[in-house]
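Deliverable D4.2, example record:
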Amino acid sequence: MTPSATSGTGEVGVERHGDVAVVRLANPGKHNALTVRMWRLVPEVFAGLATDSSVRVVVLTGAGPSFCAGSDINDLAEHHVSDLPSAAETAIATCPKAVVAAVQGYCLGGGLQLAAACDLRIAAVGSTFGVPPARLGIVYPLTATRRLLSMVGPAATKYLIFTGDRIDETRALHIGLVDEVVAADALWQRTMAVATQIAGLSQLTIQATKQIVDALVAGDEVAGTVDRWTRRAAAGPDVHEGVASFLARRPPRFTWEADPLPGLAQPHEDR
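Output generated by the structure prediction step:
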């Protein structure tokens, strides 16, 4: 299990709640603005969670009243020309586990980049979203621009970047930037309810779907990936448990884990 990182400037901590791992961005006094150290820690933390078989779902959130106010302005000159933000974003997006963002307060710039890399986003009333590169004279990373485009479309992507406007949770929901909006005092409970629900379902189905959907969005060939996942499902325990639990009218107890089957190629090899 990847431990919390507590030394230096800013933290990327990990807490466990049963099958759910909570990754918490923390930079006290700066609304969790991401320092260079924090950008570097995000891929390390997610790499550990990706290979931890006891983790079924990951929740990404911020400490205190905000999710993340973007990149720490003191480090902007270094990381806006580096691959650190894209590496952190990619680590989240390619994590085989379902990743749910719990967003409150500010979700700006690099913070929005990380939230967009999650599979689902649940936002609290009072959240604020924005993409400020035009206010800083920098270029938004290619990976982040492509991801934003796939989520909200070209017009909304251009609007957010061209104007640098901050939008509220209602408009974010309207354009597809978030999936659900809840009262601020219900955010944690609702996020954990969704994460726990996902954790109790077939991880084979979830991991296969994540890989297939992401490949379709990227325009990749997916027929081979679908075929391999289908054969994996047929050889694994979850389909039998799903049928048995349905017939017995009891909750399923899915046990599939992402260990490669003998003689069967990993489903991601054609990506």
